[in-house]
Amino acid sequence: MDIPASSRRAAQLHFHTLRAGTPFQPRIDELAKTQDWYDWSGYRAPASLWDEELEYFAIRSQAALFDISPMTKYRIDGPEAEAFCNRLTLRDVARLKPGRVHYTAWCDDAGHVLDDGTLFRLSPTRFRLCAQERHLPWLLDSAIGFDVAIEEETEAVAGLALQGPTSFAVLHEAGFAGVERLKVFDLAEFAHDGATVVISRTGFTGDLGYELFVPAERALSLWDRLMKAGELHGIRAIGYTALNRARLEAGLIVANSDFVTAEHAIRADRLRMPDEIGLGFMVDPAKGHFNGRRAILEARKRKKLRHVLVGLEVEGNIPAEHAIVYHRKSREVGLVSAAMWSPMAKRNIALASLEHPYGDRITDDLWVEIYAMRELKYEKMMKRAKVVPRPFIRLERRTATPPADF
């Protein structure tokens, strides 16, 4: 059968078009000068909106607004919600008081990381878990025997990240009275447009910043309120490329970028335990049983941990993105997962996963293999690298309370 050319084109466009838009999509589409989109869990999300370089500097010198609505969100509610979250995640949830947030992770029974994310304690019996991946079947299976209700609320709750030195000034100008009292990882509820917005002092940039969660039907009015309040404070909407640069300077990791989550890993040697990706500080053996506890403690006891995630400072100014790491220029010992020349740190920085004992007991004579384009030809460069602490930058304004009001 002869298919008309117009039908063939329509079918091709169907597979190339990202179908879902977030509640903020009308405002974002108006600002999308670059038309630079990527697929974030089925949503059309901007990699950049107007200029990825200037968007990064908006984070570090002004106030940057980033749509986090595609982030998977779960409501966990019930008399045994705390006990369930304690069983699920690595950290001791009993220490997480109402009105607080903590960064955590959760593992399968073999101790391999399924995902990392943030756990918001909204009340004594109500939590919100924000994650990169979708985990509802795992959560429901883990909840067997607990008096708890779990529901995905990704579509029902819209989210914004407001980050940068003038972010508090924007919220203050917008009339969110009392937001100045929020310390890092605090959260509180505020009135907005006949509903409630949850504002937490959290973010993915290592800078002063906040995240705001609002019912989807109030999303556009929240966007407009912030943009109007931020006119004199340099507020700009940004895409993921700029945010990714800021998170690297902060030394933060991204699932399925800096490590492969257990459900995505096809090859057994790609799996990672918390200690192997810098999340060992979360593990709380004293709190009792949690998913993966036995395997994690056994690996520690028998010294079976095979990898370590490190920060690197690389010689020169050419980013070492996805470069192979060598010891003494000969033995391959790992791979760089993220890299950039940092305008804030004035250093060539990277995150890398190395094989034990490299990056741990052996940190000398490390090199990265970089291929740089020079007049239509790739040139191989071996650049010296050294292990350095994370984060790569520390900004006092991130923790200052109350923040500066510009």
UniProtKB/TrEMBL annotation:
Gene3D superfamilies: Probable tRNA modification gtpase trme, domain 1
Domain Aminomethyltransferase C-terminal: residue ranges: 309-392
Domain GCVT N-terminal: 53-267
Pfam annotation, one family: GCV_T_C
PANTHER family: AMINOMETHYLTRANSFERASE, AMINOMETHYLTRANSFERASE, MITOCHONDRIAL
Protein's name according to its UniProt entry: Aminomethyltransferase family protein
